[in-house]
Amino acid sequence: MRIRANLRSLLCVMAMAFAIAAPVRALGAAAIADPVAARLVAESGSIAPGRTLWLGLHLDIAPGWHVYWRNPGDSGLPTEIAWTLPTGFGAGDIAWPAPRRFVVGTIGNYGYSGSVDLLAPIAAPPDATIDGAVRIAAHASWLVCSDICIPGEATLALDLPVTAEPAPPDPAVAALFAAARDRLPQAAGFETRVAVSATELRLSIPEAALAGIDRPTAAFFPFDSNVVDAAAEPRQQPRAGGLDLVLSRASGPLASLPTTLDGVLAVRSADGAERAYAISAPQRTTPAPAPGEPAVGWWQALLLAFAGGIILNLMPCVFPVLSLKLLGLAESVHRAEQRRHGIAYAAGVILSFALLGSLLLTLRAGGQAIGWGFQLQSPVVVASLAYLLFAMGLSLSGVAEFGAGLGNIGRNFADRTGLAGAFATGILATIVATPCTAPFMGTALGVALTAPAPQALAIFIALGSGLAAPVVLATAVPGIARMLPRPGRWMVWFKQLLAFPLYGTVAWLVWVLIQEVAPGDAFIALLGLVLVGFAVWIYGRTQLLAAPARSIGGGLALSGLAAAAVVAATLAPAASPAGIAAVTAGGLGYERFSTELLGRLAAEQRPAFVNLTAAWCITCLVNERTSLDSEAVRRAFAERRIVALKGDWTRRDPDITAFLQQFGRSGVPLYVLYDKAGAPTVLPQILTEASLLAAVGKI
Fold first, then answer.
1. pLDDT tens digits, residue range 278-300?
2. Which end of the chain is less enclosed by CB atoms within 10 A, N or C?
3. Homologous superfamily of the 580-697 domain (CATH)
4. What is the pTM for the complete model shown?
């Protein structure tokens, strides 16, 4: 309200300056000084205690001029009414008629021309004095525009008697109120949905909304600003069972995408008759694909999720665990046992993905701003995972043997076939896969996080099925199983060698943890690794001793693990993590990402590159090293004066999450290149120097 008041004051000053600067046009100025004539109209001649009386602010608007709706569009101000009422009386909100769209150049507005009636209810208290009179006053203010804009205002009042029973409607204004109510949006008795892409909103209008209308055309007026490009002409596409209204999304840094598309749907017939509905259309996001990734529907998202899951096996965060599992299969000489291991591993992977997807969708439904890899934004999870992989690495190095089969740390809890170990390895593979984003995953997960729950869970299960597919294939197809090497002494050496990728993963997780917590907590977390190392060592030194020593060793090991668990549980995100402080570092000379800065760059018509990343995102780090931090890229950015912005999603950040959702993405990385006009181009998640330079070359 304060911004609107200040803007109105500024417009008043401009109007006064115009009048002073052009005295020779005094007659013309007088002709347009009052393009709006306002009056206050009551539907009946009296008001009764405990009853509601409808009043109308009637505005007669000069030809060629218009006033504004509740959402004025790209510019303008809505009409406002400030009521002055007797004690106990109350005024309701304005009932806004369906507006029209006015376009001048690249500016689109919503409002009214000719005349408009803004109705509002006035409620009388039950104890209003009968046979008395009340004065109802309204201060109306508006902005009226043609080639220029003029703020206007009027103070209006009505003196109404208070009667025991409400008076019948005044015949003199009955037609006015009837016409005004005909223009009010009705409650929609049908369901609408909106499909979202990076540039368009496709509003699906069912046949029920078009019943009885000859050659219908549709228009949509959003309640929220910066959602639809008001100046862009919508496209209408008939389809079986209704029609689709294709709206251009608002662009630029202030563009928003609410969870539901709320507004007024106006349907007009060929003879000019119109029906208006108030609708609230839930969105179904169809992410705009990056170059090389096709636009998809739900069933296509299943295929992309499966393909992305397969590719995840090649990611550096998953490959060590996959190697452990395949080596464990090589230990077994029985085909039936191999098949059971493959099934158990797949069950662990798929169930973990289903549970992870359920948790993510539940938290999102509760209003949490999260996405893919959200659990690694928790220092507790990162530390716990580092401790687990460190213990596994020590076991592979021979410090302690937790089971004869590789990857079967919990083997002593399993039967002789080690199925529980295979199941646990599947869970572990899922956990370490979450920092990675394979090709096609971003599109599929974007669909999953906006689709209905059953479809979303199906996409997560498809992703898990893809991750499990290589192991299942290796155990199910005889030809592949025979390619696995036979057990031998080489396995001891290879087992110990596989410990080092795990140690590397631990080092990376500790680095991630340092980005998320304060320096003091980082030191405590490192002490947790020492406790884990002690627990594994003492268990290994005592596991083959006599029962009393074995019990003491087991007790000390459990104490060390319990202390490490307590350390992990006490870790909390720092107020200013190191990762946030270091976000501007890098070869491109990044500035800290914010929508405000992006808005300023758009206003200055400067191109911008947005890099949303996280310390725990392996894909992000690989792209940084291989594609973004090169001399050719730095030179191309400098030649075109592209400002590079980096957003750190290592910790939860609702602003970054909202920006991701604008492009149908559920996690990082996200790379968006804006040209001088502020139009965005989404780049692939697996970035190459060539693809980045090709996109930059088009600016």
1. 999 887 544 444 444 444 456 67
2. N
3. Glutaredoxin (3.40.30.10)
4. 0.47
